[in-house]
# Entry
Amino acid sequence: MVEWITSNGLTDYEEAVAFMEARAEAIHKGEADEAIWLVEHPPLYTAGTSAKPADLTDPDRFPVYESKRGGQYTYHGPGQRVAYVMLNVAERGKDVRCFVRDLENWIIAALAEFNIKGHIRDGRVGVWVERPDKPRNIDGSLKEDKVAALGIRLRKWVSFHGLSINVDPDLSHFDGIVPCGIKEHGVTSLVDLGLPVSMEDVDVALKRTFETRFGKDRSCSNADA
# Structure
């Protein structure tokens, strides 16, 4: 059974990490259910295990937190839905790559609820959308912007950290970092794409599509690509 937790207001980042670590340990011990925790944070930057110092271009703009999740620098702030994913990967096939793929496909399924086509690109973490409304690249290809980010950590085969979807954050706040180390592509949000979507709408979409990837009868070992 997966418990869904939604926190109102802005959640302190260090308190969130402490909660996730304790919950992950309890899940490992069989003392707590798996959980998906939906939060928003005050403006901040986090550095994943692959973060490069040069990608923090404005270190004094917002608080910066060293994170033990995978990935590079990312931004969290108001208007962005963060979904912290505390799931028992040992019971879902013990396949980390497949688990990450399922997280990506969960995001894509949630975006599809709003008729947004999300894409996964080799060499680029996160979920991307094509921008035919923008001038094309020099090679004639479509511009692409990131709409969702992803970064997890496993401890004793239980995941924590998770994903973030840009609903309506201040996109200028991403200017203080090179998001996920990628300079040649931009960042967007659901509202920036022209959708009058609320945080509650996104929460409904995440809950409705979760079972398609992580239902009780769907281990990672038999999940389709």
Notes: The helical segments are 13-28, 96-112, 199-214. Residues 221-225 have pLDDT under 50 and may be disordered. The CA atoms of residues 106 and 212 lie 8 Å apart. The two ends are 24 Å apart (CA to CA).
